[in-house]
Please model this.
Amino acid sequence: MTTEQLMIDTALASWRQAVAQVSETFNSLTDEQFQREVAPGKNRILYLLGHLTAVNDAMLIILGLGDRLHPELDALFVKNPDKVSKELPTAANLKKYWAEVNQNVLHKMEALSPREWLQRHTAMTDEDLTKNPTRNRLNILLSRARHVSYHLGQVVLARN
Amino acid sequence: MTTEQLMIDTALASWRQAVAQVSETFNSLTDEQFQREVAPGKNRILYLLGHLTAVNDAMLIILGLGDRLHPELDALFVKNPDKVSKELPTAANLKKYWAEVNQNVLHKMEALSPREWLQRHTAMTDEDLTKNPTRNRLNILLSRARHVSYHLGQVVLARN
Model:
C-alpha cells in the first residue's frame, strides 16, 4: 500500500469510528429518550439525529459525489432550529435514513483515490485552493467527523 | 509539496481549527461561567478545560515526543470525575496551561515527517500495527481532534 493510501485509510477509519460511536448511542435510546433535550432549552436528541443525517448526506454535494438521498431534511434540521417544524419524522424512520445515508456516503468516499482527496471541494474555487491547498476534500472529511463527535458529546448528556 | 506532506498539513489544519474553536469559547467565559455544569449534574466547564489540557498534554507520551508539561493534571481531570477533587486550579491558571500545552504539542507535531506520522504510537506493539496499519500516530491526531470537538459541543451548552 502507498503512503498516501494509508493516510486516507487512516482518515476513513477515524470517520467510521465517529459514525459508529454515535450510531451505537442512537440505537440504545428509547422513543422517550429521543424527545429529551440535551440540556434545558437546547436541541432534542431527535433533532440532532435528523441534523447529523442531513449534514452527512450533504457531504455528497460538497465533495461532488452525486445526488444526496434526503434533501428534504434540510428544511427541518439545518435551515430551522429545533421546535420550529411542527411535525418531524419518527425516530424509527430517521434511524433508517441515518443508516442509509452513512452507508451511501462511505461507499462513494471509499472509491476516491488519494489524489482525488486532495482536489478542491465544490464550495471552493480553483483560486481559493491555490491560496490554501489544505482546503480540499480531505478537509471536509475531517471537519465533518469532528461535527459528528461535537453532537455526540451533547447526545450522551441526555442519555441517562 | 509532496502529496503526503499536504495530507499531513490538512490533518494539522483540522487539529488547529478544533483547538482554536474551543480556545475562543474558553476565552469568552467569565469565572462564574467556568463554574457552571454543561447540563444538570454533569461536568463543570472548569473541569472540561482541565480535562482537555491533560489529554492534549498526554499526546506527547502516546506519540513518543518527549515529556509532558503538566502530568499532575491527570489525578484531577482524568483519573477522577468532576467534584471529587476538593481544590482545582483557577480558570486563569488552567487557561495558561491550556495555551502552553497546545503550543508545545503543536510545535513537536509539526516537526514530524509524513513517514513518522505513519509509525506506531507508543500504546501499540509492532505486531498490532502490522495487523492494522491505520493505528498509527495520525490516528491519534484525528481521534484527539474529535475528542476536543466532543467536549466543545458540551461547553457551548452552558455558555448562555
